[in-house]
Amino acid sequence: MSTAGDIAASLRELEAGHDDIPTSILLGAGYDGEKRLAFLEFYEPTSQRIFHYYDKSGHLPYCYTKEPLEKLAFLKQRNDVVDIRAEEKMDLITDQRVLVSKIITSDPLAIGGATNERSIRNIIPAYEADIKYYENYLYDNQLQVGSFYAVKKGKVIPQVMETAVGVEEALHKTLEDSTPPLSDYIRNWALLLTQPQPEIKRVALDIEVYSPVESRIPDPERAEYQVISVALAGSDGKKVVYVLERPGLEPGPDRVPPDVEKRFFKTEPELLLSMYEDLIRYPVVLTFNGDDFDLPYLYQRSLNMNIPKESIPITRGNLMASVRQAYTSTSTRPLTTRASRSTPFPTSILSTRSTGSPRGCWGERRSR
Questions:
Q1: Peptide bond preceding 181: is omega within 30 degrees of 0, i.e. cis?
Q2: Are strands 284-288 and 202-209 parallel, antiparallel or unpaired?
Q3: Which neighbouring-strand residues pair with 99?
Q4: What does the buried/exposed string (b/e) look like for 234-265 if buried means 16 or more CB atoms within 10 Å of the residue's CB?
Q5: 137, 125, 142, 130: which is closest to 67 by C-alpha?
Q6: Which of 26, 73, 92, 271 has an alpha carbon 20 to 30 Å from 354's alpha carbon atom?
Q7: What is the pTM of this model?
């Protein structure tokens, strides 16, 4: 099993920025609070890994207001306000050109996201202040998630992929009687949605946490109670359940399918580090409500277990958590019995109820 230092070294390599990236599909974007830079996440199908690209343009967070410059002088006293300038924009309500003030900051939280006066949108009427910064970054750079790009010498270059057979002919017939701009929109969307989509290596993650009160969900901010098991199911066929051995508990009936590997650990840090060692090998991580519970709980519990922060492959944001080296996708759609049957594990491992239990390994209930 890898040590905490080994995992930290692997994470540094996986998170490193790249100025040259082969043709890859853009999966997402984000903001690195430590580097203070927007970044892009590209999936390269051949190597089956995520490549990170960090902004080179000097792009900064901003918002607009109709307040004149002279009324915004007080904002210039703030260390996180870089500049305030007048710009002319089209008011789509009145269909007229209007003069607005553009406020540029060094930190997205200076625009919005904080609950106090740190965020400008809480002080004055502001426009485009509710848009997530990384979304602004995508819009301003005309980048489309789901499209293919290459990065050469630090420059992101769109890649034209071969159109599916019959698409061009069908588009030509469909658009014969259409005129711009509608025909342009239809064509662009059709070409985007018919691009080749690679098989993406991915893993699903689910955790089980002990709770002394069966009906109470543990607080991920405090992470007081043991992580008693974790399940990973990969698109490569790997299925593993990591189980914590607890004194005084006898193993329950073994209902785990033969294709699922069971690993038992005497301590939580051993369980978590073994799971992290496998988790960082996947470029995409899937969870159910993971950004709100599973990932924040794992992050805080790891800190409670004295696992170094640099060895935890999870990052905490202001409102959510994600996997550091991978693209993280989370679903919050309520699970049903039908939905649970499509998961890689049977209901003895992953219950559809919040108070279900992985009784395939231990004869005791748990809480989520």
A1: yes
A2: parallel
A3: 88
A4: bbeebbbbbbbeeeeeeeeeeebeeebeebeb
A5: 125
A6: 271
A7: 0.84
